[in-house]
Amino acid sequence: MVLSPNQNPKIINPIQQSPTVTQELSENVVLTTVDDIYNWARLSSLWPLLYGTACCFIEFAALIGSRFDFDRFGLVPRSSPRQADLLITAGTITMKYAPVLVRLYEQMPEPKYVIAMGACTITGGMFSVDSPTAVRGVDKLIPVDLYIPGCPPRPEAIIDAIIKLRKKIANDSLQERGQLQQAHRYYTVKHNMKVVKPILTGQYLQTSDRKTAPKELTEAIGMPILPTVEAVEQEEVNRG
After folding, report:
1. How many domains does the chain fold into?
2. Is 223 a member of any domain?
3. Single pTM value for the model
4. How many CB atoms lie within 10 A of CB 23?
5. In this structure, is residue 231 part of a structural domain?
6. Number of C-beta neighbours around residue 212 at 10 A
């Protein structure tokens, strides 16, 4: 390449010359909004609750290991709901456990997010047909932001849901979020069932009919009447 006398070759990245700090204003000032910097801080430090109720939690626990390493997304599992802002419902929710789930969600500080993981959490799954205790959708109890179908979903599916949740958080607005209110909330009520005595007490095992055959039965089949256990034990005592 031939250069004219007016052209001066310029080395973009010289080896012997140390880089200098530029004084240009455009390269030292970052302009942003309060919403952007606030959302960036929240999406980069999601703290999920260390929580699971069934087999989906095995896939969720695999994310903590070195193979998937979900700490690189800034996710730090917390054992206390007061220090968590992400709830992943990993497993079947039953009617008995529903008040506990609602209590954990209400103890989490705002803003908080929920990911419904697995078919059993979303619709009841395999228990939606004949189970009288499985909740047919966790969104009847708490608001859900993202759904992960599968039985159980792979850890890669959870990572994809986390990425989608980060995009959702990035588009949040402080003013709009203050106007949002929870809808479709089903409160649990105390049942009016009466406590009854247990039927299976084990006393039927101590009846005389179970210790020895009835006399009519032994006479009908022509078998000798065997002594009872108490009679055998008493005979051994007498011999001693």
Report:
1. 1
2. no
3. 0.59
4. 7
5. no
6. 16
What tens digit of pLDDT does each residue of 163-200 get?
888 888 877 776 666 666 555 554 455 556 676 776 66
Q: Give the strands of the sheet with 86-90, arranged side by side.
A: 86-90, 113-117, 146-148
Is residue 42 in some structural domain? yes
The domain spanning residue 110 has which CATH number? 3.40.50.12280
2-37 pLDDT, tens digit per residue, is 556 565 556 555 555 565 666 666 666 777 777 777
**Domain around 174:** 37-179
**Residue 18 covered by a domain:** no
What sign for the dihedral angle of Cα 127, 131, 136, 142?
negative
